[in-house]
Specification:
The protein is mainly α. The chain has helices spanning about 1-25, 35-50, 65-75, 115-120, 125-140, 140-160, 165-175, 180-195, 205-215, 235-245, 255-265, and strands at about 90-95, 105, 110-115. It has one domain (about 30-265). It has a three-stranded mixed beta sheet, with helices on both faces. It is globular, with a radius of gyration of 19 Å.
């Protein structure tokens, strides 16, 4: 009984502190940075153990393709806009699946980009925009914010009562099923613009993917949109974020088109 009362007291204190912190940072989150990193590491292990669903390209065999994405990722990290640039791993993988238009980034910064998405897009800024968007979901810790909304109080109680390991393992296994809220999508779109603004890419590159989907008149939404709701005004909002941020950079043809074409050609 005393243990339960103590847990309740600690819970009340922690919830109060967390709420104040959340108001300052924009999202209630009971999980720590270490939890994000642990969740990401667990998901990385599960993906690596399932090559049938996630056929990852060999990093040695396709070194030039990985180096291209690494350079793009590094420019985003070097923007100085990421809160967890030095805390997360920011590890890249390419998934060989030409039929899937998708990319995702787990908590802790494990990034997965499908060949289907790479080949679907037309230029470097388009991919950089999607990459920035996915990295923003991790950097802004949207997944564990979603978990907090769904399981926060009960999970925190289990943690305080020493029963956290099995619960956290179960949650990690279901992370891939989470769908982001519209507010998280808006936040990721905005931060993709902020991340790309100091780089050699167009800051509003994230809008290209959605514009291409609209222009194609696709009847079946791609995999990417299954966990990324697509409000009608999303494209316009991304362009507005660029204008409001004063981003004026424009990539050279070598960066935007020629280099990207060579990157796509290096894939199987």
């Amino acid at each position: 009984m005393k243990k339960l009362l103590m847990a309740l007291m600690i819970t009340t204190i922690v919830m109060g502190i967390t709420t104040i912190t959340a108001c300052k940072k924009g999202g209630l989150n009971f999980f720590s940075i270490e939890d994000d990193k642990n969740f990401g590491a667990q998901m990385e292990a599960e993906i690596a153990a399932n090559p049938g669903q996630y056929p990852l390209l060999n990093q040695t065999q396709y070194a030039s393709a990985y180096q291209y994405l690494e350079n793009m990722k590094q420019q985003i990290i070097s923007s100085g806009q990421l809160q967890n640039a030095d805390k997360f791993v920011w590890k890249l993988y390419i998934v060989q699946d030409d039929n899937t238009l998708n990319a995702f980034c787990t908590p802790g910064g494990y990034i997965y980009v499908y060949t289907g998405l790479i080949k679907y897009l037309d230029n470097a800024s388009s991919l950089a925009g999607v990459l920035g968007h996915e990295m923003a979901h991790a950097d802004r810790r949207h997944s564990t914010q979603q978990l907090t909304q769904q399981y926060g109080f009960s999970i925190l109680m289990d943690v305080l009562l020493g029963k956290n390991q099995s619960v956290l393992t179960d949650i990690a296994a279901n992370l891939s099923l989470l769908a982001f809220s519209r507010s998280h999508e808006t936040d990721a779109d905005k931060h993709s613009v902020l991340y790309l603004c100091p780089t050699q890419y167009r800051a509003d590159g994230a809008a290209d993917f959605f514009q291409k989907i609209v222009d194609s008149g696709a009847q079946n939404p791609p995999q990417f949109l299954s966990t990324h709701p697509n409000p009608d005004n999303r494209i316009q909002n991304i362009h507005k974020h660029k204008d409001d941020s004063g981003c004026t950079g424009s990539p050279t043809a070598q960066v935007e088109l020629t280099g990207y074409a060579a990157f796509k050609a290096s894939l199987p």
